[in-house]
Amino acid sequence: MNLSLILAGLWVVLAAVLAAIPSRDNHWRRAWFLVATGLPILAWVFWQNGPWWGLAVALAEASILRWPIRRLIAWLRR
Question: Backbone dihedral region of 22: left (phi > 0), alpha (psi from -120 to 50 degrees) or beta?
Fold first, then answer.
């Protein structure tokens, strides 16, 4: 296992920890932090491990960040 996959796994653990901590803004600041850190990790996984591992990490990140993705789709439809 290489560093990009290790960082992707740590990103998932960090997302779980951040979700467990109470928040006044419904976790939106944390979600944008996870987006900002998750996209470079996702690109690195695609570059270093190929499209299948990249797709697996993209699905994992999308399942964690489903509300920002829903908001983005709703905004694009308007």
Answer: beta
Range of the domain at 53: 3-77
Which residue has better confidence, 26 or 61? 61
Q: Enter the pTM of the model.
A: 0.85
Number of domains in the chain: 1
Query: Which ranges of the chain would DSSP assign to H, the alpha helix?
Result: 3-20, 28-49, 51-64, 66-77
- Residue 65, CB half-sphere, CA atoms under 13 Å: how many? 27
Question: Could you report the per-residue pLDDT of 33-44, keeping only the tens digit for each?
Answer: 999 999 999 999
Task: Show the tokens assigned to 18.
Answer: 């951040």
For residue 1, give the 3-state DSSP assignment.
coil
The Cα angle at residue 64 between residues 21 and 70, in degrees rounded to 5 = 110
